[in-house]
Amino acid sequence: MAAHTSMLHVRIDDETKAQATQTLAAMGLSVSDAVRLFLHRVVVDQAFPLELKVPNAETRKAMAEADEIVSTHHARFSTVAELFDDLEKNIDK
User: Fold this and answer.
1) φ, ψ at 71 (rounded to 5°)
2) So where are the chain's domains?
């Protein structure tokens, strides 16, 4: 007896879909295969198959800084040399 199937529609931006399709194809999977595998793991494990965490304060600060850099198109370093100087200064932190 054949299993009954259902359609699942998911909205995703075009760039993410294209990149995911290419990456999954390199693994021998289609996007549909990946979604089926994901949902199968949810059923088998009775859990979300990826570890999700609430970001800590340091991570939230870094995320906010990244958002600001993207929105203003201005990083906190004016030159690459400044970036490397800061990295060297904070290497042990």
Assistant:
1) -70, -35
2) 1-51, 57-89
Report field, pTM of the whole predicted structure over 0.85? no
In the predicted model, is pLDDT for residue 83 greater than 90?
A: no
Tell the CATH superfamily of the 1-51 domain. Met repressor-like (1.10.1220.10)
Residue found under tokens 């870094």? 62
Averaged pLDDT for residues 35-60: 92
Work out the pLDDT band at 93, boundaries 50, 70, 90.
low
